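Write out this protein's structure.
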Amino acid sequence: MVILVEGTAIVTSLSSVLHDSNEFPNPETFDPGHFLDAKGNFKKSDYFMPFSTGKRVCLGEGLARMELFLFLTTILQNFKLKSLVPPKDINDTPQVNVISVSPPPLQLCFIPV
């Protein structure tokens, strides 16, 4: 993201925050434990900023969070999800390209409840 401040361009890099090994041990691997406390409850992290931060935060953040909640809860209420690959064989290594890091594709079977 580029921010102009009185004629000076400031380029922010969220990847430096999202890959902070002090906050997220093993930041290169998928670990839901990064967001759980000792009791397994969700813990908020100021270092997780999927919608940016400050005055330039994404205006659609609230809508995106509501839509994701509705979408995922509807799926989980109406379907049982089953992987087409045995769980031990699932590859969770992120795919890195020039501008993004994304999870690898995974095929799921949606079985109506």
